[in-house]
Write a structure and sequence with these properties.
The complex is a heterodimer of chains A (about 450) and B (about 425). With about 450 residues, chain A is mainly alpha-helical. Helix content of chain A is about 75%, strand content about 0%. Chain A folds into 2 domains: about 1-295, ABC transporter involved in vitamin B12 uptake, BtuC (Orthogonal Bundle); about 300-455, Arc Repressor Mutant, subunit A (Orthogonal Bundle). In chain B, the strands form 2 sheets. A two-stranded antiparallel ribbon of chain B has the order 1-2. In chain B, strands 3-4 form a two-stranded antiparallel sheet. By secondary structure, chain B is mainly alpha-helical. Helix content of chain B is about 75%, strand content about 5%. The chains are: A mainly alpha (about 450), B mainly alpha (about 425).
Amino acid sequence: MIELLAAQQPDWLRLVTLQDYNARVVLAGTSLLGMACGLVGTFLLLRKRALLSDAVAHATLPGVVIAFMVMVAAGMTGRALPGLLAGAAVTGVLGMLAVVAIQRWSPLKDDAALGIVLSVFFGFGVSLLGVAMRLEGVNAAGLSSFIYGKAASMLLADAMVIGVAALLAAAACLLLFKELTLLCFDPALAASQGWPAGVLDVLLMGLTVAVTVIGLQAVGLILVVALLVIPPAAARFWTDNLRKMIAIAGVVGAASGAIGTIVSALFARLPAGALIVLTAASLFGLSLIFGRARGLLWRALEHRMLSKRVARQHMLRAIYEIAESSRTSDARLSGIEIPITAVVSKRSWDEKSVAADIARLASDGLVTRRGDAVCLTRSGEDEAARMVRNHRLWEIFLLTHADIAPAQVDRDADRIEHVLDESMIDELESILEAQTARIPVPESPHLLRTAEELAK
Amino acid sequence: MIWTPFDTWIVITAALSAMACAVLGNYLVLRKLSMMGDAISHTVLPGLAIAFLITGTRDSVPMFIGAAVIGIATALLVQGLSRYSRLDEGSAMGVVFTTLFAVGLVLITNAAEHVDLDPGCVLYGAIELAPLETRKLFGMDVPIAAITNGVMLIVNLAFVGFFHKELKVCAFDPEMAESLGISAGRMHYVLMTLVAATCVSAFESVGSILVIAMLIVPGAAAWLLVGRMSSMIMVSLAFAAGSAFLGHLSAITVPGWFGHASTSTAGMMGGVSGILFAVTFLLSPRHGLVSRALHQALLSLRVAREDILATLYRREERDEAAAGTGAGWRNRLAERMLLAKGEIIAAGGNLRLTDSGRESAKSLVGTHRLWETYLVAEGGSATERVHGAAERLEHFTDEVLRGRLAEEAGHPDVDPHNRSIPK
């Protein structure tokens, strides 16, 4: 690897620092391509049609080969990119129409329609390729770059064609932003504004064919679908807002195209399409972990914070309940010393975690620890009273309105009490007003064991 | 064209691998998992590459294990991703299979220096070379690829036969499957494993794209043709074998018509299966486009004929003469059919009912008026509203229904418009 780097370094440096005009154009071309794919792909993803571009991409192969053979027969070299892409677009559209026809006029589902079109068109393409490869005196080897892609070694003119076409597709996508959004979320409203879903669908499919076809040479037809699927899928982890999502998808797509191209210049032996896709996949992986809206890390963090809060609340309530059952008069509960062992056996917690939770509560000023005992402070008592109240209100509600057995309600209330908000509490109070005389903190509807009983 | 034993072996190998795929394909199509088949046939590539890099051999056992592992991994990843990230299953599949395929491509290109595993071979296969590697079996030189694919076909058939009921319940009603104690999830993963294994066995001979064609197209065509699960499997097997034979035949003949040499058998098999599917799509008696259009046309002609008879009858009731019964090719065709059947005659520029025509018309108009009576009396519809509904219902009312209708309406003599109901 190091030898490889050393050998390639001049090229690599020239490419990364963009000293070479050629490299700049190719890089711009693939970045624009990635961006356009990201934009169009966002709407495809929201329409749940992501794999449509896979079928279209495979369906372009016969078109590419036919265009090649026609150009050769007409005496040209057969390598002119616009001609090949035109052929690709023709069979791509045919493939898309075939998908629509199968969906529309047979009981087969979308997945079967896509699979049939994809494999059959590709089959035809491979047969035609077999013929083209054996043509006398013609070099058809370049055609296979349409299957696996050749980003870095693209011709200058080809990169320009791709860049301009991608720019047009991206512009069309942004101009139609409002209409396409309506298509994804409210087709009826779109229709009422003079954009029937059918017309918009045709537009979206047209854009799909366009970006798929221009992506063929850089990424290859097997993997071009990745550029339409992965960037928007990655963007979903960052935001739930469509405007932001489409922007992020465009950026991820452009970055995949650019980084992938540079890497494929480094490792010329490896298929360029695969490297672009792997770049996109790495960005997807990062989004999956670090994404602000749905990323694994944030979700785990939130989950952890919630479970800590729940544990703390449980502990506070346990101390309150023990104190409550051991008090002799109507005096305040703060100041009543409760042995740690009672708290430990209250919920069969282990001593270590009890000690840790109590220490945390103490640092918040809710309890004070006195040797082997713990007691509530004034503010701790108020906080605990609020918690116990929520818990018991819910318990009573379950008992009287959901017919749950007294032995069971404690557990059920445990789960819900932490997420009850003010309005829910108000509602519970109004429901339960008739039944509970002492709304401040109602009596527990089930037996509570005293500190002495727990200590046994 | 020259047909050699070589060609026979190519067709047999291709047919066996196509049939092995088709058996499982039925369930993929039924469970809307066709694209999962597509995804797995792509992700098998890194499975093969990793198995090769670990063991350093191309023996079939590590290859099958690698494929099985990656098959299950694909299914798990797709399911996990779509559940976790709320992406739809298609997009999750798109993310997973393209990534894994890209990994596979990179690994294989790296390994390619040591072994003839090249991406092109994976895509199109090399079935033309299959008969070169043979092994003695029952005193015959049988291509190794034919043996592998034959074994795979038997395994798949055994699985489908043994778990016939479970697979069927899972395909049509996963919740009921759970209630019967069948784990739909486990069936799913077993199916995915077999799909992956079948992909490996078919890979070398026909290539990955053809695997997708044979996984999906025969099952889809069979679904359009028959309704029973067991007949579906039979039809799909025949379809797969037919595609293999016709595919190879056209691969060696069709390019010749245009002055070219032969072309890839695998590609042509995909193409031929597409043509066969298109024919099924158009002509299948159950769901075919043409047969449904034909059915529709025949129905609308019958309705037109019946409307003509009913119109003539009503005019007879009112003592009007009738010159024609309406414009349009459908009405003219319906008139001509009625004339040919002798239900109406043209007399002096007017159309008139014959006796047999009058009988049919009586029964139609009778049904129409019974419906009107029924709809007013039992359905609570307004008298002036019921004509349209009765006009549609009269064409779909048979003798039995008419009898019950008359009974429900209390065998009335006149309809709500006070016209007599002919018996």
